[in-house]
Amino acid sequence: MELIVKVKSNGPNPRYQDGDVVSTMSLDRIHLAHAEMICHPNNFGFNTNGTRDLNTLLEKFQQATHMYKFQRVGKRVRRTNLITGEEDMIGKTPNENGESIDVYQYLSKRLKNPRHKIFGASGSEVWYGKMRSDKETFLASVWNHIETETDNLKEDHNSWPFTDLEKRHFICINTSGRSYDGDSFTRVELSGGTVIERALPAVEDIPEDPPEDYNPIILAKRRWFVPYWDLSSELGSSVDDLRNPDHMCDCRKPMNEREHIDILTYDKITEGLL
Questions:
Q1: Which of 177, 181, 160 is nearest to 252 (CA)?
Q2: What is the Cα–Cα distance from 195 to 181, expressed in whole angstroms?
Q3: CA separation for the pair 219, 217 (Å, rounded)
Q4: Torsion from C-alpha of 68, 52, 111, 37, nearest 10 degrees
Q5: How is residue 154 annotated by DSSP?
Q6: Could you report the per-residue pLDDT of 21-71, keeping only the tens digit for each?
């Protein structure tokens, strides 16, 4: 798990405060981000029809990461659910769910975009829709394709690609959990709710039966913070360096050296700051 931490406050709450955890990245999210860059349309050319070739890494990535495959069949489109295998046809006349498509207009518009992801021969074009949310399920297939067709290895893409500008204005850190066996422990990656909750705002206590239009009051932009000013040793940088906008603050460590998440992140409510 990686975090990007705010340096210096933007003003009073509920604006970002010094030390706020701005964003968090699980290892799955990191692997997907790198896969998206490797399989970006800009890295692939067009065929003589102006579409993309079938069976390329770009198409395999689209197929692995999306729920639906669409293929033009005359004036209609065959939609295949890639999870269940179910198929149906969509045309100009709305179906029972109100779905319709003018395939000629749809493709004409999409093909004008230089980053389009339309594949195959003219008249039987293929494209994909609805990104899947189950990264933990499809990432293995994605990286199998990438490692088979390129020199990129998944194990070499375990860090978020922060820019130099981000490293100058924020603190980039990583952390871990622990799996215990008696008195000894092994550092492990964090995922799921732990990653999500560390980047959530702090809100007022929600009533047991809130009205439908209820919106909780935000007490602070982020509930969790990293008191980096007390963690110079753990982060391996002085406070002056961490606050210096000309210094790149990349405090990430190999897994066997990472600090436990409870050493680095603190709950403002538990700490009595809100």
A1: 160
A2: 24
A3: 6
A4: 70
A5: G
A6: 999 999 999 999 999 999 999 999 999 999 999 999 999 999 999 999 999
How many angstroms from the chain centroid is the CA of residue 195? 12
Q: Which one, of 64, 65, 76, lies nearest residue 124 by Cα? A: 76
Give the type of residue at 182: G
From its phi and psi, is residue 14 left (phi > 0), alpha (psi between -120 and 50) or beta? Answer: alpha
CA distance 261 to 177: 6
pLDDT tens column, 159-207:
999 999 999 999 999 999 999 999 899 999 998 899 999 999 999 988 8
Cα–Cα distance, 90 to 77 (Å, whole number): 5
Amino acid at 261: I
Containing 202, the helix (H) or strand (E) segment is: strand 202-203
Read off the amino acid at residue 125: E
Tokens 């980047």, located at residue: 199
